[in-house]
């Protein structure tokens, strides 16, 4: 328990956020961190104005914790499978870019480990998916939380799967394509390819903080947006999790900006999630912690 608490505090940068995600009180999280610090004989986190960050000792512990937690999760899945074979149907919802890497690999893992479980998948914006979950139209959703936006998980169970900085996709041959990194000022006059969809959903737009960005095209489909970039019609935001999969015709460039430009990905279920949903969350967690993602 202590290692998982330390892992969540480091990922979220906050004792309070870790407590909310794990379903514990903040005092319980503080006690677990204190116990781990006593066990290793060193302070694990430094407090800053924007939250907490792991110390050098904490970083060492976190590297080993990731391996141990993944092994513990794998052992739990194997033990569960040995006790009984899961059978049934699960309805899952995922945000668009989640269908590029995270969901497909979790589905493949479910197929291999639980072949008798049928998984149906719906795609939609994060807010739409959360409404579907509350209406019990789906049993589990994978949602993305953009910088400056906080989803309402009241009455639900959420688990942080991924956190990653936003980057920018530019066409090959673009003036920014050969740079090691760019600044927001470099992006201000660029034409943007942005997302679109149902009212109320939050989509990838221009770089946060750029006032009155020049929007060239808006497309609901993720692949359509990247196709427009590859054709040289504009630039677009991309999350870390899919940056390595960008196709030919585009280059992904980091943005040098100290602002809070990290996107978080959560798995969310009802508090009384059924066993199939819990197993799928385990699969998502295993994919999210894989070095191949």
From TrEMBL:
<dbReference type="InterPro" id="IPR000847">
    <property type="entry name" value="LysR_HTH_N"/>
</dbReference>
<dbReference type="InterPro" id="IPR005119">
    <property type="entry name" value="LysR_subst-bd"/>
</dbReference>
<keyword id="KW-0238">DNA-binding</keyword>
<dbReference type="GO" id="GO:0032993">
    <property type="term" value="C:protein-DNA complex"/>
</dbReference>
<keyword id="KW-0805">Transcription regulation</keyword>
<dbReference type="GO" id="GO:0003700">
    <property type="term" value="F:DNA-binding transcription factor activity"/>
</dbReference>
<dbReference type="Pfam" id="PF00126">
    <property type="entry name" value="HTH_1"/>
</dbReference>
<protein>
    <submittedName>
        <fullName>LysR family transcriptional regulator</fullName>
    </submittedName>
</protein>
<keyword id="KW-0804">Transcription</keyword>
<dbReference type="GO" id="GO:0003677">
    <property type="term" value="F:DNA binding"/>
</dbReference>
<dbReference type="InterPro" id="IPR036388">
    <property type="entry name" value="WH-like_DNA-bd_sf"/>
</dbReference>
<dbReference type="InterPro" id="IPR036390">
    <property type="entry name" value="WH_DNA-bd_sf"/>
</dbReference>
<feature type="domain" description="HTH lysR-type">
    <location>
        <begin position="1"/>
        <end position="55"/>
    </location>
</feature>
<comment type="similarity">
    <text>Belongs to the LysR transcriptional regulatory family.</text>
</comment>
<dbReference type="Pfam" id="PF03466">
    <property type="entry name" value="LysR_substrate"/>
</dbReference>
